[in-house]
Amino acid sequence: MAEKPLPGVEEAEKIIAAFPVTTRIESVPLLAARGRILAADIPSPLAMPEFDKSAMDGFAYGSDDRSPAYQIIETIAAGATPRLTVHRGQCAKIMTGAMLPAGADRVVRREFTLEANGSMQITAEDRNRNVRKKGEDLQAGELALERGAALQAAQIALLASLGLAEVPVARPPRVGILTTGSELAEPGTALGPGQIYNSNSYSLAAQVCALGAEALLLGSIADNAEETAEAIASSLQKCEILILSGGVSAGDFDYVPAAMKRTGFTLHFEKIAVQPGMPTVFGSRGEKAAFGLPGNPVSTFVIFEIFIKPLLLRLMGHAYRPLIMPAVLTAAYGRSQGARTAFVPVACREGRATLVAYHGSAHLHSLSRANALLRVPAGQLSIPAGSTVDVRFI
Ligand code: AMP
Ligand code: MG
């Protein structure tokens, strides 16, 4: 009987996208919301600017008043309320951000005036009105930020300027990270013979944290069927999404897919036609989802980027679309087998994509110099130098 073809990248993406998620909403202080996703539309409680104000240090007067000199009737500091109305032949000295007095609709900046004996003369034409009108940025009640917005410094500044101290955000998922491999040692300890350092826990945790989700390092386990199943079962109590690294291939000591089944997971796929990362496993059990990723560090990284990141962002209320841009390939790309879609690390600068020296899915040093992935469709073996390609930023 012919073997069932592996799901391609799009199919695997669809399967993961069909996993149902419920977002939980919480209200958090502004600074704790950095990197999180807004869970509700925010109508502006205020007009912005809040009142007509001066954009300059200068003198406020009536724009149709062309008197040769203007009597200064008061000085208005930012935060003060003007007491007097400006009439013809009069002006008020005014500071940046101060409220415009009645009778004035224009400000001449200080540098364009001469001030002496309580009066002001305009010495050069100021082309600008230098007035910020109430509500010119936002009207009260107008939509200030839309649900789904990613909250970074500019959005947090806007919320603060509207007087909001707390903001509703989707609660980020807790993502458990469990590495398997009897060869693994932790950074900071001495390496025994045949051992390597565990890097996948750290790359995965960094990727999870970069999204604003919570990463739980649940440790490393030896390649052992019992231990793997036990670790999966106990890890599930601590997280909504579980990521396992290693132990998914065809080796004698690869126990993860069987352990996932034993712990009650339905496996939706056990391989993807992708390079690197073919033996990727995705399963669900009720509201929990788990991924088993091949241990090769570049595979782990790429599979997270392409398949897991969109799910985590969806759990956080974000309708994520990866940033894909055209770039000119600086050197020819070639591969010997083309059955799978490949994601190849590239360094992309100023519209030019350079393949980083890349010899396989274990090469973290190459990956560390890349900032994007070149997607090579299944069936394509080469791309000539100078071609315009799409790169996906990481
Ligand atoms: P596996 O998927 O378990 O067959 O592992 C594939 C390759 O990735 C092997 O060379 C492992 O030593 C390596 N590897 C597995 N887990 C890790 C890890 N946590 N950090 C770095 N390399 C790993
Ligand atoms: Mg292993």
Characterization of this structure:
The chain is α/β, with parallel strands linked by helices. Helices cover 18% and strands 31% of the residues. It is built from 7 helices and 28 strands. The strands form 8 sheets. The protein has a 6-stranded mixed β-sheet with strand order 7-4-6-5-9-8, with no helix packed on it. Strands 16-13-17-21-20-18 form a 6-stranded mixed β-sheet, sandwiched between helices. It has a 5-stranded mixed β-barrel with strand order 22-25-24-26-28. A hairpin with a 2-residue loop joins strand 8 and strand 9. Helix 1 packs parallel to helix 6, helix 3 packs parallel to helix 6 and helix 4 crosses helix 5. The longest helix is centred in the C-terminal third of the chain and has 19 residues. The protein is elongated and about 95 Å long. 36% of the residues are buried. The site of magnesium ion (MG) has 6 residues, from loops. Adenosine monophosphate binds next to helix 3.
